[in-house]
Structure formats: C-alpha cells, structure tokens
Amino acid sequence: MIKVKSKRAFSMITAIFVIVIMATVTSLVMNVTDKTVKATTMQYQKEQAQLLARSYTELAILYAIHKDRSSSCIETITDHFGDATNGYDVRMNISYIGNSTLLANCNNNIESDGTINLSNTNATWTTTGGFNDTISMVVDTYITYKDFDDLTTDRNITFYRRTLQKL
Q1: Is the dihedral of CA 45, 46, 51, 56 positive or negative?
Q2: Who is most buried in 29, 30, 45, 71, counting CB within 10 A?
Q3: 162 pLDDT exceeds 70?
C-alpha cells in the first residue's frame, strides 16, 4: 500500500516538473516571436527606404528637367521624411554627363570638357545630332535611418541607389 503522504509528494514533483517545462516552452516561443518582430520591422524599414529612394530619384529628375540649366544646375537635394526620431534622411548628389555647351554652368561634369570626339569611332550618327546633343544625369540617392528596435545607439543604416537618366 502506498501512503497518502507519498502520493501528495509525487503530485507536487509532477506539478513542478510540468511548470518548468511550460516555462521553458514559453520562453522559447517568446524568443522566436521577438526575433520575428525585429526581422519584420527591419524588412519594413528597408522596403520603405527603397520606395523613398525611388520616389525622391523621380522627384530629382523632375526638378532637373524643368530647371533652366543656363543659369545653374541642381547638384544636391536634401530632405527629411517622417518624424524626428524615426524618420528617414534623404541626400541626393546629382552629376551631369554630356555636351559642355548644354551644361555650361554645371560645376560637376563627369567628362573633362563635356564633349566626345565621334570622328575616331565607327558610330553612325553625326556630331550635329545623337549623343552630342544630349545630356544625362547620374543621381546618387542615400536614404539614412535608425533601426526602430535599437534607438539607443547612434548607428545608422544607409540604403543607396544610383540612377542614370537621359534628359
């Protein structure tokens, strides 16, 4: 015969064992949930930065198309999107490539004199048309933001996009 005291002790040990197992499983589930939330937040921020880079690049192209380049050229655009703590800093550097007469007042031509000698190539177009009469712009877009989950550090994440656009 089993005594009543030993039955109670066995029930107590079983209950403690079940509680320890449930606590371990709960902590594992919470750990996985935390990592999933952080990964989702990082993915959201990266996709938001990609969309902002695309939108701001199109905005820079729009500004450059409608800007009178005879007086000056747009070379840098900066902005801040969002609130002060969780926002995105936008910086765009714009460079121009093409004929120097069309870009006379732009300080950052990539070509040394802005022209290309087509007489030494097998190109089918002439110097009065084609590439010589066009200009292009290179837009380097930098989107900088802080990680939503780690606001205590000063570490920034930067998304970079380069675009070549014919004007």
Answers
A1: positive
A2: 45
A3: yes
